[in-house]
Design goal:
heterotrimer, A mainly alpha (about 270), B mainly alpha (about 270), C alpha/beta (about 260), A: mainly alpha, MetI-like fold, 11 helices, about 75% helix, C: about 260 residues, alpha/beta, 2 domains, six-stranded mixed sheet, four-stranded antiparallel sheet, 9 helices, 10 strands, about 35% helix, about 25% strand, binds adenosine-5'-triphosphate, binds magnesium ion
């Protein structure tokens, strides 16, 4: 910082910060969005606080569970778990074959993969309960509708994970097998599957965790399982019973989550 | 020349037993799941209904898209977006303190964070629909109940994701602030939050995708959004209406997924 | 300097045992005077980082006492501790910048302990401090990067931002833990020169852990050798024979002793 003329060094002042348009745009979108959506949904905190006692009342009632009711609840919880297992099974099975069809390193035809991926993306958009409502309309109330809904839902969740796993594998073995003249199926069983199997199992377990959660409410719209009683007890204000159901659901879900995620960790080690 | 005999692949018996045990247990669970399932009671009309739904999807009720009276598809979808947006925002705010509670860091006892994780697991497992019904009792039926239900329920997942980001945080920047005499709050403001921001935004956007799907079903119990008109259309067997609503949901979710994916890719 | 022999850092019987039983430091007694430029050498795992991180209490010691300018940092708590730390700048091997913040904001971090919390929260740094930060950046030759994000800079530039941060902090002591370990020789020199400038121009006491014997010889006035958590050598650089380095590195691994 010496200058040639030998005068005292001139220290330049801090320049003005550059104006970052995009930051402002995002801020405006966020604030505008909050304002508009608060208006649109009529969400108002004062109203919530005024009526908060209604909310806590239910909570307090639920916190006094009616344990005599658990005899009724547990068989239905088991049924719910069965639905989740079946849904996971069928959904993953279908996703398994489907993912081979849309992995670009297995099927080279861009049109085929493109079309099937589009269908997959459509299926993925439909939420679990909507699938439940649709299948109830189709096959009537009961566990079958639930299993169908969960199968399609599982398919949507895992198929994407599956094919992405396939596409990230090491291509060496595929090329090696292609070079020795192996057919598609041999390539799949000898080069692809050994590399992705642990991932597939892990994703299936993950889907199972989601399904257990989803299956507990399917009954609410008539698609089988414990959700039915959730609706019935809430409708007649038997909150102690609702509380019993919820506590049992929470325990089961947390337990299954814990076991399954530990299993996944062990698997990926 | 003599060749050695190929020895069998080395494999520990313990490991083999374990693998087989897992396979057998899984199969047993699967078979057990098939028991007592009534797959017989399919309505005879099922085939015809599937036909009608597909027919409805192919011939959607375009007139329902926009009627101008606020009872149309676009208004319902718009309401759904708003529920998801506000609900996600609320849950992101609530999630922050929960995330710091549940994150396992060297600054606090492991028991504290374990407790936080359990609380989050319970929130996650508390059925969203029940939460919506409880809020309906508090603020009346409608979108607001949906917003609140989403806002609370999403905390379970979002705070978990947040806390994982906190656990993976680079400690170095924190140390630099501490070393220059900063307080815990300074560490938070100058190192932790700026480093955390991208993953907070990314996780929140991801959660918005999920919330949008939730918002479109909360209507099934009267908590606003597109779910209610869909339920009505299904009940009254207005298949072309069902068709246009499904189309609407699919397109909306796809567009939002695409936008949020795009923003998230910009973040890193 | 008038009072060149005032002690700046005093370690009295300092020891550190990690929770897992590893001995980090064993009965360290050291006095470092104001204005000294000390280099600490020793094998990897000898305890150099542990020593530095104990001095500003990024880690607690298990025994003994450390005085900073006469005040005990090992006994200080809360605000008092933070005020002592304000007088100790630190340079890290991995720079430890907030990657996603601007260079300016990173430099201003050096100033946080001078403000009440609420002011820093709303980013209400004074104009003078912002200007000072800018001047610090000019001193390390990074003025034009002031509004860039820290992660857009190269490693050497990031370390210079860290030096500007210390300049902004204006401490009495600088602890530098292998400040050049991840940089190329040319850049390393430049960083060491910056540290030398802080030492000579502002009279800051510098303690630097160095792996490179060459850099240690060039910049250090005093050498402290550490092995297995103990001080095994302490003396003026000019009076230190080559054998000391070979001894400390126990034959060494060639690379470190090599000079050209
Ligand atoms: N957090 C910790 N927990 C347990 N042991 C530790 C911890 N940090 C350091 N150690 C141990 O303390 C000893 C001294 O480590 P330290 O980091 O001070 O060495 P160093 O001289 O800085 O080495 P390097 O040149 O590799 O940086 C080593 O044996 C190290 O394994
Ligand atoms: Mg070290």
């Amino acid at each position: 910082m010496t200058n040639k003329s030998g005068q005292a060094p001139v220290v330049p002042g801090l320049p003005k910060k550059k104006f970052k348009l995009m930051n402002w745009v995002w801020a405006i979108i966020l604030i505008g969005g909050l304002f508009v959506s608060t208006q649109e949904t009529n969400t108002s905190l004062p109203v919530l606080f005024q009526n908060f006692s209604n909310f806590t009342e239910i909570f307090v009632e639920m916190a006094k569970p009616d344990w005599s009711y658990s005899g009724t609840v547990i068989p239905l919880v088991l049924q719910t778990i069965k639905m989740a297992i079946l849904g996971t099974f069928f959904g993953s099975l279908a996703a398994f074959f489907y993912s081979l069809l849309i992995a670009r390193n297995v099927v080279k035809n861009k049109v085929v993969t493109g079309v099937f991926r589009f269908i997959m993306n459509i299926i993925r958009t439909i939420p679990d309960l909507l699938l439940g409502a649709i299948f109830v309309a189709i096959v009537g109330t009961g566990t079958f509708a639930g299993v169908l809904a969960l199968s399609v839902f599982t398919f949507g969740v895992v198929v994407k994970l599956f094919y992405e796993a396939i596409e990230t594998i090491d291509n060496g073995p595929i090329e090696a097998l292609t070079a020795v003249g192996a057919n598609k199926w041999q390539i799949i069983t000898d080069a692809v599957l050994p590399q992705v199997m642990t991932y597939f199992i892990s994703y299936t377990l993950y889907a199972f965790e989601i399904n257990v959660r989803a299956s507990t409410v399917l009954g609410y719209i008539g698609a089988g399982g414990i959700g039915l009683y959730l609706q019935q007890t809430l409708d007649v204000f038997q909150y102690e019973r609702t509380g019993t159901i919820i506590i049992i659901i929470v325990i089961v879900v947390v337990l299954i989550d814990y076991i399954s995620s530990k299993a996944r960790e062990a698997l990926m080690k | 020349m003599e060749y050695k005999q190929l020895a069998p692949a080395p494999k520990s018996t313990a490991k083999r037993i374990k693998t087989w045990l897992i396979v057998i247990i899984s199969l047993a669970l699967l078979i057990w799941s098939f028991t007592d399932m009534d797959f017989g009671g399919i309505k005879p009309s099922a085939k015809q209904i599937v036909g009608s739904i597909f027919n409805g999807l192919l011939h959607p009720d375009w007139s329902y898209v926009y009627t101008g009276d606020g009872e149309d598809l676009l208004s319902a979808l718009w309401e759904t977006i708003c529920i998801a947006f506000l609900g996600t925002f609320i849950s992101a705010i609530i999630s922050l303190p929960f995330a710091f509670w549940a994150a396992r860091t060297k600054y606090k006892h492991w028991f504290t964070s374990r407790l936080g994780k359990i609380v989050l697991a319970i929130i996650r497992s508390f059925p969203e629909i029940v939460l919506a019904l409880m809020f309906i009792k508090a603020v009346g039926p409608g979108a607001a109940a949906g917003v609140l239900a989403l806002g609370v329920h999403s905390v379970g997942m979002l705070a978990k994701l947040f806390s994982e980001s906190i656990e993976n945080l680079d400690e170095g920047a924190n140390e630099a602030v501490i070393a220059s005499g900063g307080s815990k709050w300074h560490v938070m403001m100058f190192a932790t939050m700026p480093n955390l921001m991208p993953s907070l935004i990314s996780n929140t956007l991801y959660r918005f995708d999920v919330s949008l799907r939730s918002a479109s079903v909360l209507g099934l119990v009267g908590a606003g959004g597109i779910g209610y008109p869909l339920m009505t259309a299904l009940n009254y067997r207005m298949w072309s209406r069902v068709g246009i609503i499904l189309l609407g949901i699919i397109i909306l979710v796809m567009i939002v997924d695409w936008i949020s994916g795009w923003i998230r890719s910009k973040l890193v | 300097m008038a009072n060149a022999n005032t002690p700046m850092i005093e370690c009295k019987n300092v020891s550190k045992v990690y929770p897992d039983g590893t001995v980090g430091l064993k009965d360290i007694n050291l006095t470092i005077n104001k204005g000294e430029f000390v280099v600490v050498v020793g094998l990897s795992g000898a305890g150099k980082s542990t020593l530095l991180r104990s001095i500003n209490r990024l880690q607690d010691v298990s025994g003994g006492e450390i005085l900073i300018d006469g005040k005990s940092i090992t006994a200080a708590k809360g605000k008092e501790l933070r005020l002592i730390r304000r007088d100790i700048g630190m340079i890290f091997q991995s720079f430890n910048l907030v990657k996603r913040s601007s260079v300016l904001r990173n430099v201003l971090v050096g100033r946080v302990a001078y403000y009440p919390t609420w002011k820093t929260t709303f980013n209400l740094f004074s104009k003078e401090d912002k200007q000072k930060a800018y001047e610090a950046l000019q001193q390390v030759g990074l003025a034009e990067k002031v509004y860039n994000r820290a992660d857009e800079l190269s490693g050497g530039q990031q370390q210079r931002v860290a030096i500007a941060r210390v300049l902004e902090q204006n401490p009495k002591i600088i602890l530098a833990d292998e400040p050049t370990a991840s940089l190329d020789p040319e850049t390393s020199k430049r960083i060491m020169n910056d540290l030398k400038m802080l030492n000579e121009k502002y009279g800051m006491t510098v303690i630097a852990n160095l792996h490179s014997v060459e850099l240690a010889k060039e910049f250090g006035q005093r050498v402290i050798g550490i092995r297995a958590g103990q001080v095994v050598y302490d003396g003026k650089m000019s009076e230190t024979p080559e054998s000391v380095f070979t001894n400390i590195y126990n034959g060494g691994n060639g690379k470190e002793a090599a000079d050209d």
